[in-house]
Amino acid sequence: MTIWQTLILASIAVLALKLLGYLVPPSLVEKPTPARVANLLTVALLSALIVVQTFGGSTGIVVDARIPALLLAAGLFALRVPFIIVVAAAAVTAALIRLWT
Amino acid sequence: MSDPAVIERRAAIRASFAVGLAVAAYGISFGALAVASGLDLWQTCFLSLVMFSGGSQFAVIGILASGGAAAGGAAIASGALLGTRNALYALRVAPFIGGPWPKKILAAHWTIDETTAVSTAQKTLVGQRAGFWWTGAIIYIGWNLTTLLGALIGDLLGDVSQFGLDAAAAAAFLGLLWPRLIQLQPVAVAIGAAVVAAALLPFVPAGIPVLAAAVVAVVVGLTNWLGGREATS
Q: Mutating which of A4, A50, A101 best tests the B interface, going by the most B Cβ atoms within 10 A?
């Protein structure tokens, strides 16, 4: 398989999955249990994405400057600092730690 | 100013810009990483234009970087597995996305983490729709521009991690999660999902830890474990 074929097939798959959700009748998610599951799915996937983004690397779990940056971000979110400032602060924190170590 | 619909709409648009600009900026690292993993400029931009789902895009280039064209099958499977959550997001946003099918198809293309998170965080229909379309437009335009920029300067940039963009992405996901952690049940699910993802991370292919973590939400959601407190409060 060529790189182009891979990219095209993968893109079709991802777009088809997005469309799939619009083909299901809306009444399904208005019932309490599917709605609760869908809400919790967002929470679970975001939480897992944080873990993967923070600890992911070429060799299993990687501990580096991303962890203090994420802890700082959590503290700033708790203090209700605006999203974009927190994200920038996390990037600067990680960059500075990498510069000095 | 006293019209609640106007206030809701403005609040949704503000959230769209805050989330959209922060996440779109991360496209620079995608563009740079994609070029570094062997894609050319057109292939890199194709992914952002047509696939348009950050997690899936990173998964695809990650697998191609390690396995080359021979790993195409694994790259497709990994991208699709990470994209399954968009189908679930579509279930959440479809009820308030009205209109004819061309509009729904565009909405489907823009149904990603951020549009779902911003729109479902709004309390009214006006706010939900504004949040979805504004976030979608800002990220689609921004993500593609920064992908192109990242691909162009990828060689100069070198290792994107030294700029802290990977940490910025983690912080962005945390910012999306934070407003949802207001009850015991979602907090428990977030912790459980994080533990599952971390436990699997060293042992399974890219994309699987995130999908496995979804099982935690399904189990807790179906049994409504820890859900009693929210009913009585």
A: A50
What is the torsional sign of CA B153, B155, B161, B163? negative
Helix axes A83-100, B165-177, angle to 10 degrees: 150
Which chain B residues contact residue A93 at CB under 8 A? 164, 167
For residues B53 and B86, the answer to whether their CB atoms sit within 8 Å is yes
Residue bearing tokens 């593609």: B144
Closest chain B CA to residue A35: B92
In whole angstroms, give the CA distance from residue B168 to residue B161: 10
- CA A17, A23, A25: angle at the middle one, nearest 5? 135
Asked if B192 contacts A7 with a C-beta cutoff of 8 angstroms, the reply is no
What is the number of other CB atoms lying within 10 angstroms of the CB of residue B102?
8
- Taking one residue from A and the other from B, the number of pairs with CB-CB distance under 8 angstroms is 294
Query: pLDDT for B134-154, tens place per residue?
Result: 999 999 999 999 999 989 977
CB A48 within 8 A of CB B210: yes
Q: Nearest by CB to B87, which of A10, A17, A44?
A: A17
pLDDT digits (tens, 9 = 90+) for B200-217: 988 887 667 877 888 999
Question: Would an 8 Å CB–CB cutoff place B86 in contact with chain A?
Answer: yes
> Does this complex have an ipTM over 0.85?
no
Pick from B104, B117, B164: CB nearest A95: B164
* Inter-chain residue contact A54 with B221, CB threshold 8 Å: no
* Element of type H or E holding B86: helix B72-93
DSSP-assigned letter for residue B48? I
B12 alpha carbon, distance to own chain's centre = 18
